[in-house]
């Protein structure tokens, strides 16, 4: 944290008709020897890219990302010593609208945080003799209009190459028409360093196919639903316009744009008359397909390398893997990975393509454990949890539906009113940090978030009815139950009070456990009493005659998975759950609440075969149905695309939502059989439960102590298992019907 900033936020003093380019020429102080170090602190009201003598200072894009700007604005910190040593003498900053000033939400509004597009930078140079020099954004800077005529995260970016200010960020540039800047009065105490990683380009993807649609439009298929933008290389007459519209799917052999709702998702490039390369780095799109309009010479003139999809996401390290003998299951797992990559773009969002892209708390509640296995997301989610706590504090203890919360400006939709704590969504305050604790074993996250956890659980306690259950107020419930009408996704089979009370019990129980870990004895007892009370109220209100109220798969799933039932009750509840799953033809009958936990509930009550039949089902609704339809990410709805290839008629339809991919957590722990028996995998549990038609499965995860892995395969009636325990850890092999085997570090092989 810097307390003595010399920099200020600066914005154009007048109005510009394009994205601003800020510049400052400087001369290094003489007589102090060689530059020993140079550090650039960078931020913006908007998103920005910085250059020293024309060179990008880092590979980061969309800096400083999206936080709850009312209370926290991040700044990046980059070592630029080598650039300064080479004699850099111009610092330039380009600024786009980003989340701060661009459109957010589905109502069409923008600039909820402020009207200014402003730059902030402080270049700190240290010389060999200890002398310090600071070049900071202030009134001495100038600004000019760039070639970015418009930019918006939802609608896309327009770049006019005729307006390019070649050399604007180099010494010797004629900046006579650059104008004065003004100071934007902003509390610099809001500036904080990044906790999580920056957003960066991840890889390039070339088209698989380019063709002409029945209506005569040029379409491009990149073979993978991804998030980012196109880098376009094109030559044509000055003033010619090339437009690129993006979408996830095709419908009737044309671009399927209805799911985008009001998002235009279109980049427009005005050519200079020379060879131009465009890269719209102030926007991003969720897409597999692109529609190209206005290409000089038509489709025949598009050459290899002219259209390249640039994949963009937060810079996360992949740590977990899974594979099996079933190709469809492997493709589904890849879909989970790609969906996470696209939606972990600075904020864990619900979707990356339509006029939404918000940090819905319910989605990450469901998916946090899966995410923590696939990638190292500890700092990414800790960063987001800071914003969750800030929003919660300013909502009188209520965790909002989205973080950062722009619905307080947009207004909550009528169907989500009145705004209040809601099960699963608000439970992110507890479930997300707990998932990080289990995956990485660092109690720092619990220490940092415990007050938020406790505040949420106490808020829920204040909402309980006289009977001790949570049965009042708005609830999303088992959102997107496949039996709900397309335009009424909250109309699920599961009683909302059952879902909410079960979720409240889990949160109280986990918060009590967190208090115990942290040595907070009074809070441990407080939340343990609350959990016991909720458990008793759940039974009194919802359990009778070996049935749970509303008698559907989700209510039995949550009661079993969350530990609300004693051993005798677990038997009949498991039998009832298995019967309901069978009655559904082993098709999915759960939504957001039940889906992450149903396979666990089945296997933990002895119904492994039912869990596998559910997992491997290929008919809709099922996890593999989308794979059979060519999906390359996980869909929002079980039937986002209908069997005839048409898009689900509901207005809310996305082809890239990670929440329903949360079953991958069970695939890692149960199908492959690798899980932390102690937080951070200090002890690794190897407990595969082979089933279905799988003949082998394997998984690995780079734990805080090193790589843990398992591979099993069937050998006739026998089973062969090979495991690796990281150095410094221990392991336990647990095979059905056999005693546990304790393992030291290293590789071990077993046959039975």
Structural class: alpha+beta
Average pLDDT number: 96
Helix content: 25-40%
Secondary structure: number of strands: 38
The stretches of 5 or more residues where confidence is low (pLDDT under 50) are none
How much of the residues is beta strand, in percent? 25-35%
Radius of gyration, whole Å: 27 Å
Q: Strand count, sense and closure of the main sheet?
A: 11 strands, mixed
Cα shape: globular
What would you note in describing this structure?
Strands 6, 12, 13, 16, 17, 18, 19, 22, 23, 24 and 25 form an eleven-stranded mixed beta sheet that branches. The chain has a seven-stranded antiparallel beta sheet with strand order 1-14-11-2-8-4-5. It has 16 helices and 38 strands. With 752 residues, it is α+β, with helices and mostly antiparallel strands. It is 25% helix and 28% strand. The longest helix is centred in the C-terminal third of the chain and has 22 residues, at 496-517.
In short:
The chain is an alpha+beta fold. It contains 16 helices and 38 strands. The strands form 8 sheets. Strands 6, 12, 13, 16, 17, 18, 19, 22, 23, 24 and 25 form an 11-stranded mixed beta sheet that branches. It has a 7-stranded antiparallel beta sheet with strand order 1-14-11-2-8-4-5.
Which secondary structure elements does this structure contain, and how are they paired or packed?
Layout: E1 9-12, E2 20-25, E3 35-45, E4 47-52, E5 55-56, E6 60-61, E7 73-79, H1 81-85, E8 90-96, H2 98-101, E9 118-127, E10 132-136, E11 142-145, E12 148-152, E13 156-160, E14 179-184, E15 191-193, E16 199-205, E17 209-212, E18 218-235, E19 241-247, E20 249-251, E21 254-256, E22 266-270, E23 275-278, E24 285-293, E25 307-314, E26 320-324, H3 327-343, E27 344-345, E28 347-348, H4 361-374, H5 378-393, H6 407-410, H7 428-440, H8 444-463, H9 496-517, H10 521-542, E29 543-544, E30 547-548, H11 553-561, H12 567-583, H13 598-604, H14 608-615, H15 625-628, H16 664-672, E31 674-676, E32 683-686, E33 696-703, E34 706-715, E35 718-725, E36 730-733, E37 741-743, E38 746-751
Helix pairs in contact: 4-7, 5-7, 5-8, 7-8, 8-9, 9-10, 9-11, 11-12, 11-13, 13-14
């Amino acid at each position: 944290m810097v307390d003595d900033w010399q920099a200020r936020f600066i914005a154009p003093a007048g109005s510009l008709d394009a994205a601003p380019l800020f510049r400052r020429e400087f001369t290094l102080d003489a007589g102090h020897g060689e530059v020993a170090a140079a550090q650039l602190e960078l931020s913006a009201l908007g998103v920005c890219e910085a250059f020293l003598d024309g060179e990008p200072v880092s590979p980061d894009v969309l800096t400083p990302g999206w936080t709850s700007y009312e209370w926290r604005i991040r700044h990046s910190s980059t070592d630029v010593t080598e650039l300064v040593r080479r004699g850099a003498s111009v610092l330039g900053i380009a600024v786009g609208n980003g989340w701060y000033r661009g459109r957010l939400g589905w109502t069409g509004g923008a600039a909820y945080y402020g009207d200014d597009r402003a730059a902030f930078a402080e270049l700190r140079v240290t010389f060999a003799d200890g002398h310090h020099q600071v070049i900071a954004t202030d009134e001495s800077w100038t600004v000019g209009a760039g070639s970015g005529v418009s930019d918006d995260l939802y609608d896309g970016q327009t770049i006019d190459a005729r307006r390019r200010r070649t050399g604007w960020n180099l010494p010797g540039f004629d900046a006579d028409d650059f104008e004065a800047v003004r100071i934007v009065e902003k509390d610099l105490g809001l500036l904080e360093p990044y906790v999580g990683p920056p957003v960066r380009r991840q890889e390039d993807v070339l088209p698989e196919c380019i063709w002409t649609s029945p209506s005569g439009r040029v379409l491009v298929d990149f073979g993978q639903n991804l998030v980012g933008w196109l880098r376009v290389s094109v030559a044509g007459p000055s003033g010619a316009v090339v437009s690129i519209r993006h979408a996830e799917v095709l419908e009737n052999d044309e671009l399927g744009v209805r799911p985008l709702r009001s998002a235009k998702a279109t980049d427009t490039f005005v050519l200079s008359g020379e060879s131009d390369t465009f890269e719209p780095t102030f926007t991003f799109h969720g897409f597999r397909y692109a529609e190209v309009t206005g290409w000089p010479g038509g489709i025949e003139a598009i050459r290899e390398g002219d259209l390249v999809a640039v994949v963009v996401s937060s810079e996360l390290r992949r740590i977990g893997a899974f594979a099996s003998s079933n190709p469809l299951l492997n493709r589904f797992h890849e879909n989970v990975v790609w969906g996470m990559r696209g939606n972990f773009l600075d904020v864990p969002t619900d979707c990356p393509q339509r006029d939404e892209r918000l940090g819905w708390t319910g989605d990450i509640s469901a998916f946090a454990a899966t995410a923590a296995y696939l990638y190292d997301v500890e700092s990414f989610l800790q960063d987001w949890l800071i914003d969750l706590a800030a929003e919660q504090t300013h909502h009188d203890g209520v965790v909002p539906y989205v973080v950062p919360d722009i619905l307080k400006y947009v207004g909550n939709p009528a169907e989500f009113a009145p705004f209040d704590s809601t099960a699963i969504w608000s439970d992110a305050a507890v479930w997300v940090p707990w998932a990080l604790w289990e995956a990485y074993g660092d109690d720092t996250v619990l220490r940092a978030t415990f007050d938020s956890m406790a505040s949420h659980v106490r808020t829920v306690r204040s909402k309980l009815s006289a009977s001790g259950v949570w049965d009042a107020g708005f609830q999303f419930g088992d959102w997107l139950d496949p039996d709900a009408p397309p335009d009424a996704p909250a109309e699920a089979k599961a009683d909302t009070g059952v879902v909410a009370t079960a979720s409240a019990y889990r949160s109280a129980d986990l918060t009590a456990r967190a208090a115990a870990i942290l040595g907070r004895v009074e809070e441990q007892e407080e939340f343990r009493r609350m959990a016991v009370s909720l458990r008793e109220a759940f039974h009194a209100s919802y359990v009778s005659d070996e049935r749970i109220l509303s008698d559907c798969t989700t209510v039995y799933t949550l009661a079993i998975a969350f530990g609300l039932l004693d051993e005798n009750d677990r038997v009949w509840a498991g039998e009832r759950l298995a019967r309901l799953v069978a009655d559904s033809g082993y098709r999915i009958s759960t939504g957001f609440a039940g889906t992450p936990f149903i396979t666990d509930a089945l296997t933990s009550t002895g119904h492994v075969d039912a869990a596998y039949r559910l997992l491997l089902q290929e008919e809709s609704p099922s996890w593999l149905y989308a794979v059979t339809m060519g999906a390359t990410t996980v869909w929002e709805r079980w039937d986002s695309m209908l069997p005839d290839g048409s898009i689900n008629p509901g207005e809310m339809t996305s082809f890239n939502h990670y929440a329903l991919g949360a079953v991958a957590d069970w695939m890692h722990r149960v199908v492959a059989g690798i899980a932390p028996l102690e937080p951070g995998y200090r002890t690794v549990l190897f407990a595969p439960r082979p089933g279905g038609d799988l003949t082998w499965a394997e998984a690995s995860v780079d734990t805080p102590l090193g790589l843990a892995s398992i591979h099993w395969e069937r050998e006739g009636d026998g089973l062969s298992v090979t495991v690796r325990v990281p150095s410094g850890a221990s392991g336990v092999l647990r095979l059905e019907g056999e005693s546990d085997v304790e393992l030291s570090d290293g590789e071990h092989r077993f046959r039975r």
